[in-house]
Amino acid sequence: MKLIYHSNPQKNFGDELNVDLWPRLAPDMFDETSRTGFLGIGTIVGRSFANVDHLHVFSSGVGYDSVVDWKMPRTIWCVRGPLSAKVLGADADAALTDGAILAPNVLGIDSRNVERKGVGLIPHWESELEGGWKEAATLADMELITPIDDPVNVFQAINRKSLILTESLHGAIVADALGVPWLAIGTSGNVSIFKWTDWAMSLGVKLRIYQVPAPSGRAISKFGRFRSASADPVIPDAEYAINHYRGPGEGGGGLSSLRSLSRSAKKTLLENQLCAQLLGFSPVAMAERLAAVAKQEPQLSEAGTRARLAERMLERFRALQTEQLESGSSPRYRDNASR
Q1: Which of 21, 200, 237, 253 is deepest in the core (most CB within 10 A)?
Q2: Please, are residues 202 and 98 in contact by the beta-carbon 8 Å criterion?
Q3: Residue range 135-159, pLDDT digits in tens
Q4: Which regions are flagged for Polar residues bias (predicted)?
């Protein structure tokens, strides 16, 4: 099969994890010339892929693309969570969790015999590109863990911390898989509440996302504001998350006080450092809020839940592997498009 994942020049660790994880589990199963695709970790369900006749969806998630007219012939072995399964019309049994749950064991990251101290801060990779995160982390006495790095480096950095504050979904997924407490944050409209909720529900976690001011106005100019400006966390349920997926609402300018301005005028104001600071977007404002959020009760799934899901996912992967070796066998987990 051809390994399919979202790839870009910035090398986001959550996407690049596919290359480190799946071929280690089945070195002989992947072939870049194959017209059968393996859709692994990432929010890439709903996309079409050239030169692929059939997809095997394995732990991928819905979130960015519509699946209403998704015509790719596919077999769904498992998806990130119950919301992805629901949107796809797949069997409830297809909802497992994100495939990164397997990574600590496969990559040999020891989460038991390690000294943990300090707080790590992980931005969404696109947010980090807009600047200000390093300064905010320093002011808040936190270590910035860039997601634009080799997966093993990110895993090891997370594993050394006693708490992770993360805007990156895979920052939370990896922290949780390693047993490191975490808190979700959102600085702009670039945060997908749907995919966060989908994953959290797969582990039985009642998600809380804390609003934190972006460290610069550029992210707000580019992505819009976060869903909530309140100091209280967003606690999304399934209905809220699905509505957010179908239509995330106004986010094109950043602040209600700027709604009367043209888009270009908003962009000019938000990308001016002094104006952005006056509007509350600066490393200083971010650091103050990060310090407050870090005092909240952290989140972490039950170890037994993680172990059961990892075992079920590995069993399902081995079933897929066996099917590929035994040509002509019928897949056990399909959605409506495959019937």
Answers
A1: 200
A2: yes
A3: 999 999 999 999 999 999 999 999 9
A4: 321-330
Question: In the block, which residue shows the tokens 């979904």?
Answer: 169
Query: Percent of the chain, pLDDT > 90?
Result: 74
Given pLDDT bands bounded at 50, 70 and 90, which one contains residue 244?
confident
pLDDT at 250: 35
How far apart (Å, rounded) are the C-alpha atoms in residues 169 and 42?
Answer: 10
309, 82 Cβ separation under 8 angstroms: no
10, 44 in Cβ contact below 8 A? Answer: no
Domain assignments of the chain as residue spans, ordered by start: 2-104+304-338, 111-293
3-class secondary structure for the chain? Answer: CEEECCCCCCCCHHHHHHHHHHHHHCCCCCCCCCCEEEECCCCCCCCCCCCCCEEEEEEECCCCCCCCCCCCCEEEEEECCHHHHHHHCCCHHHECCCHHHHHHHHHCCCCCCCCCCCEEEECCHHHHCCCCHHHHHHHCCCEECCCCCCHHHHHHHHHCCCEEEECCHHHHHHHHHHCCCEEEEECCCCCCHHHHHHHHHHCCCCCCEEECCCCCHHHHHHHCCCCCCCCCCECCCHHHHHHHHHCCCCCCCCCHHHCCCCHHHHHHHHCCHHHHHHCCCCHHHHHHHHHHHCCCCCECCCHHHHHHHHHHHHHHHHHHHHHHHCCCCCCCCCCHHHC
> How far is residue 247's CA from residue 325's CA, in Å, rounded to a whole number?
42
Task: Tell me the three state secondary structure of residue 28.
Answer: coil
Q: Which two tokens stand for residue 27?
A: 């070195």
